[in-house]
Amino acid sequence: VVRGRTRAAIYGGLRVNRPIGDVVAEKVVRSAAELAREIEIRDEVDRRVSLIGNTRAAHGATVPAAVSEALTESLVALRAIAARTDDPSIREQVRTVEETLTRARDGASHPRTHLTAREHDVLSHVALGCRNAEIADRLSLSVETVKTYLRNAMDKLDVRSRHEAVVEARRQGLLP
Fold this sequence. Notes:
Helix content is 68%, strand content 0%. The chain is mainly α and 176 residues long. Among the domains are: 65-105; 117-171, Arc Repressor Mutant, subunit A (Orthogonal Bundle). Helix 4 packs across helix 6 (143-157), helix 5 packs across helix 6 (143-157) and helix 6 crosses helix 7. The chain is elongated.
């Protein structure tokens, strides 16, 4: 029973007619508790994977109209300032700020790294603490394929470990 719902049943039996003692019953109860905990953990991982999917979909949303208008007005003002100045260093600084505001207005942070959908999926599961075998099972891939996707993502992010990959992907805004 997990969170009040029956999720699994454990059956057992003996090959001979003997009474079941406390030691055996205790082992069965302990096994049931471990199974319930495992199911609860898997439910939580599924919930988080679902949140990641929803977050990815939400990132495609546009910037609110009021914010977009304010950013556009700021861009127009910056261009006017850049046109009036003769100092090339100030003009370059203004253009850098313009580019940043344009990306913000368009609702894209333009991360340095582009991960494929599968690399992102694998890295999302790594961020949840899943082992390669669990990721392979959840994504219907082989363990070797998971390792390949993870290795490719690590190369793109220029990191050497799973942990560094998750940290760098979050820093770049690729993972929530």
